[in-house]
Amino acid sequence: MPPKQVKSKTAASVDRKRSKRGADGDDLTEMGDGTEQDDWMQAKTLVKPEDQLELSEAELKEEFTRILTANNPHAPQNIVRYSFKERQYKQTSSVDQLAVHFALDGNLLHKDSEEARKQFNRTGLAETKEEQAEPAAEAAATEEGGEEGASGEGKEEAGDEDAAPAPASKAGGKEKKLTNQFNFSERASQTYNNPFRDRATVTEPPPRASFSSNVTQWEIYDAYQEDFEKQEKSKEKKVIPGRKEEEKSKKKFQISETSSDDITRVETAAKIVERMVNQNTYDDIAQDFKYWEDVSDEFRDSEGTLLPLWKFSFEKAKKLAITSVCWSPKYRDLVAVSCGSYDFMKQGSGLIILWTMKNPSFPECYFETDSGVMCLDVHPQHPHWICAGFYDGSVAIFSAVDKREGAIHRCTAKNGKHTDPVWQVRWQKDDADNNMNFYSISSDGRICLWTILKNEMVYQDVIRLSLPDVSAEGPDGIKVATTGCGTAFDFHKQKDYLFLVGTEEGKVHICSKAYTSHFIDTIDAHNMAVYKVCWNRFHPKIFITCSADWTVKIWEMKDTMDKSESGDEARKPLFSFDLNNSVGDVAWAPYSSTVFAAVTSDGKAFVYDLNANKYEPLCEQMVAQKKKTKLTHVEFNPTYPIVVIGDDRGNVTSLKLSPNLRKMKAEKKGAPPVDEATKVQREIEKLEKILSMVRNQPTEATA
Fold first, then answer.
1. Axis-axis angle for helices 152-160, 9-23 (nearest 10)
2. Compositional bias of type Acidic residues: which residue ranges (predicted)?
3. Can you spell out the DSSP letters for 102-168?
4. CA dist 486 → 272, 422, 503 (Å)
5. pLDDT value of residue 564
């Protein structure tokens, strides 16, 4: 049997279209036999150009992804606008990418809208319901007839072709035609022009008077005489003896009092206005300080970030280094910094600056000194008292309340001044006579106690650092004991008589106020100078040290019995971290016993959490904006989740800790609030759990 010829839907549709055109008188005929169909369906011959590139099969299968973007290639990318906040021209990053190729104004009305019906009524084209129903009935009848007479192929054809509705007509044969096929309406109106009116008025001129006179010598004399007589009459009034001097003194006191009150009011008002302006200027930073949380911390467990907030810079401190940082114990937004120089060849003046987060543009208070300030400390009970140590070996007391430019008390060579720079000072509890006192440590090997009396400062040498293993020979061959160089110290949080001393030789001495001749214990902690020693805020036996030998080490102070049993084991640190550069400062966090931060000379800040990772830092971030900028000091805020970092260019930068850097143990819902003693005990237990895994193992180090 000959094979059946099967036509596709497309071929059948083409046949019907051609048959229709033949019925209308076209020259085309219907394709009936298979030969014509083969001619129409024959394959196209591909012409290959002579210079066509030959590609291998792998190159042909290679996919090239091209991304179409909605960016305008002709949009300018170098638009510069003036920034009033930073007072300079800055390039704008947002560019309008919209390109308009065609625009036409028009007005479209919906047929069923009220306004369209009104237009129909105005033009006389309103249709009745019967007239509207006639075209619909005719269209339905046409559709029914077409369905009965159509074949299977006709049904397919009905799905492809569009059916045109029959025009509606009235009984009289007149066809209704809309004047606006697209519901376009164009309207115009003319408003009423108000007439112009001119009004004028005339006022009465002000009265004028002309006066002229000749001034002679006797007229001037008479005027002076009248004035002299008036003064004589006022002096003739009765004056009680002694009352005149009282009135003069009262007037002077009132004038001085009112003037001082006026100055104080002006100062207060100016300070409020200045803080309001700064609040508007640094509003975005204040919002970040209050509400910003790094959402990406949810997707990474052992990493965190530091968000830069305010940067405090002072014109007079640009060429000085930040030598110490101390938060105020009462005002949580106030930080005191000292400015000096660590280069002994470039010594000059110094500064003590008090910055507040409410006004980053200018210091709240500052003191200029003739020598570089190397350290300071704020009194815990009287936050306006500041003790400071200088490069020339002297110590001084400043008051932020008194309007004095210099120090209230300052020692000299006559009353115990150090012979080398003072590297650290620290307030202590008042003595039995309620006199304030503080300690100082210097490179001359002396640790001094300074007591502030009414009009003077009295010193007392607590301990002298010495090197028993090293001795120098005198001129006659006599061995002279060598003095050690103290660089840092810290007092115990619970036992105020116990304190640590770091030396330039890399040793750490555990000392007591009761023993002035020897140390309780000595540890060979580092190979170079120790820059900071600090007790843990929660655990009573743990302390941390940092040094110029690139390391940060955590130590445990053991009892006398433990030292005798373990031998040299007590000399090894529990943890040792190598930061690849000289470590300028280290500080424990006030909210956790396992979190500490450190800064290095290459401009980086590190934040560790021993509870999360005992080997690597959770955050290693570049803080210095300029190259070769050394970070010198770091300090945690006691209340807010921020740290301040000082550098050797006189700048202080505040940074906010991300949530991963300040994780706390979550409390159960509905549980009663935990008191401070319970929190401390929990922190001790958390650190003790980590230490128990380390004590019987070799020293852990982080490269």
1. 90
2. 25-39
3. ------B--TTSHHHHHHHHHHT----HHHHHHHHHHHHHHHHHHHHH--HHHHHHHHHSPPPPPPP
4. 44, 9, 4
5. 46
Give the other-Cβ count within 10 Å of 534's Cβ. 20
Under 8 Å between Cβ of 312 and 651: yes
CA distance 619 to 642: 14
Half-sphere exposure of 198 (CA within 13 A, CB side): 1
SS3 290: helix
Specify whether the backbone of 475 is left (phi greater than 0), alpha (psi in -120 to 50) or beta: alpha
Q: pLDDT per residue over 58-110, tens digit each?
A: 888 888 888 888 888 888 888 898 888 888 988 888 888 888 888 887 777 78
- Residue pair 459/470 in contact (Cβ under 8 Å)? The answer is no
DSSP string, 298-326: GG-SS---EEEEEEE--GGGTTSEEEEEE
* The pair of three-digit structure tokens given for residue 132, joined into one six-digit string: 């509207």
- Contact at 8 Å (CB) between 624 and 585? no
CA geometry: angle 20, 24, 27, nearest 5 deg: 85
Q: Which two tokens stand for residue 457?
A: 């400062």
Residue 552's DSSP bridge partners are 546, 577
Cβ(400)–Cβ(386) below 8 Å:
yes
Distance, in Å, from the CA atom of 385 to the CA atom of 397, rounded to the nearest integer, reads 7
Q: Provide DSSP, 219-285.
A: HHHHHHHHHHHHHHHHHTS---TTHHHHHHHHHHHHHHHHHHHHHHHHHHHHHHHHHHHHHHHTHHH
Q: Which of 68, 69, 72 is nearest to 97 (CA)?
A: 72
Residue 427: closest CA among 466, 465, 395, 461: 395
Contacts of 161 (CB under 8 A, 6+ apart): none
Q: State both tokens at 511.
A: 């000392």
Residue range 548-576: mean pLDDT, rounded:
72
Total residue count of the chain as it appears in this document: 703
Q: For the purposes of burial, counting CB atoms within 10 Å of the CB of 292, is it exposed (0-12), middle (13-18) or buried (19 or more)? A: middle
Q: Which helix (H) or strand (E) holds 660?
A: none
How many Cβ atoms are within 10 Å of 247's Cβ, its own excluded?
Answer: 12
Does pTM surpass 0.85? no
Secondary structure element (H or E) that encloses residue 423, with its range? strand 422-428
Mean pLDDT of the chain: 78
**Structure confidence at residue 605 (pLDDT):** 92
Is the pLDDT score of 341 beyond 60?
yes
Contact 604, 581 (CB under 8 A): yes
Residues 386 and 378: beta-carbon distance below 8 Å: yes
Query: Does residue 175 surpass a pLDDT of 70?
Result: no
What tens digit of pLDDT does each residue of 230-257 get? Answer: 888 887 765 555 555 555 565 555 555 5
**Dihedral (Cα; 108, 110, 111, 112), 10-degree rounding:** -160
Q: Two tokens at 34?
A: 């298979």
For residue 652, pLDDT beyond 50: yes
User: Distance between CA atoms of 323 and 423, rounded to whole angstroms?
Assistant: 9
